[in-house]
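Hi V.,

You were right to ask for the full record rather than a summary. Here it is.
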Amino acid sequence: MRSLDDLQVAGLTVLVRSDFNVPLADGPDGVPVITDDGRIVAGLPTIQELRSAGAKVVVVAHLGRPKGQFSSQFSMAPVAKRLSDLLEVPVHLGSDVTGPITRDLVAAMSPGDVVLLENIRFDPREDSKDPAARSELSAELASLADVFVSDGFGVVHREQASVTGVAALLPSVAGRLVEREATVFAALLSDPDRPYAVILGGSKVSDKLGVIGNLLSKVDRLLIGGGMAFTFLAAKGMAVGDSLLEADQISVCREFIDQAAATGVDLVLPMDVVVADSFSPDAATKIVSADHIETGWRGLDIGPATAELFAAKLADARTIVWNGPMGVFEMAPFAHGTRAVAQAMIDAKAMTVVGGGDSAAAIRLLGLPEEQFTHISTGGGASLEYLEGKTLPGLAILEERS
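Predicted structure:
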C-alpha cells in the first residue's frame, strides 16, 4: 500500500483518521481527564510529518460508544487539549463534526495548522448499517480535504465512513502508524523467526477462538493464562472453583488441546494459580495448584511457578506475541503474572510484539519500559483479527487504491 512517501502535501488539506480512543476519568472539577495518552502519542509522528511538509491537517477520530448522539462525556475536547500540548501548537475543535463551524475552521487554516473534528461517532451515519447513510457522511468528510491518510490502526477492522468510505473517495495512503502495524503483523503471519511463541490471556476464551484456531498451525508454543485458562483447565478435567468459566467452550478447548498434541505445538497451561475469596484487592489470597481450586475461591492470576515456566518457554524464542493479561493486573495482588511475562519478553533475544488493548495498558500501568519491546500495537481488536488471518477492510481499501 502507498505511504506518506508517495505524497506531496505542501499547501494541501489532509484528512487523517487517527485512533484517539483514550481512557478518561472524572477530574477534580468533574471535567474528564485522560488517564493514558499512549494512542495520542502514537499518532504524533504522522501529524508532525504532515505539518512539517506544509499540509493543513484535519484529524478525525472517535471516543467511546456514544451511539450516534452528542454526549459531553465523550467529547474530543480533552483530546484536543492534550494534542495541542504535545504538538505545542493550538488545536481547534470542530464542534459540529462536518457542519458549518468545522467548515469555517478548515477554510481558515494555514499550512501547519491542525483541526480536530468532534467525535465522529456522534454522527449516527459513521457506522450505520445503511450504506447510503455511510456514503453521505463519507462524502462530507471527503469534501473537507484533498488527501486522506489512514493512521488509526485500532479501527482498520471496521467498515465505517471515516475508515473505508472516505478512503474510496480521495487519494489515500497509510500513515506511519498504520504502515508500521501492517508491516509487523504481516511478518508474524508470513515468515516469523523460530521458535515462535504466543502468549494469550484476558478473560474470555470465546474472544480468542479465531486467533487460537489460526495460530495453532503457525506457532511452536502457545502459552495460555488469564481468565481464559480456566476453560482450558476444565477441558482437562480439572475443577476450577469459582473461577471464570465458559462451559459452552470446554469442548472447543479440548479440541485445541488435542490438535496441539497431534501437530507438536507446545500448549502450556498454568501449573499454579493465585486464588482469592472475592474479586477485590483486599480479598484473602493463596497460591494453589491449578488442579486444586476449591469452591468459593477464584483464580485471579497465574502463580509464581507458572510465571517461571512461562519465562523458561520464552527464553530461547525468537518471535514472541502477547495478547491479554495473565491476571487482574489493575489490582496489585494479582499483577505479578502479567509483570513476569512482560519482563520475560524484555529479557528474551526476540522480536517482541504486544497486541494492544489491555496488554499495552498493563505495560504502561506497571511502569515497564515500552522502548524495550519491538512493537506495542495500538489496536487490540484489529491486531486480534489480523492474527486470525481476516481481511481488514481499512487496509484492503488502501491496497485497492494503490
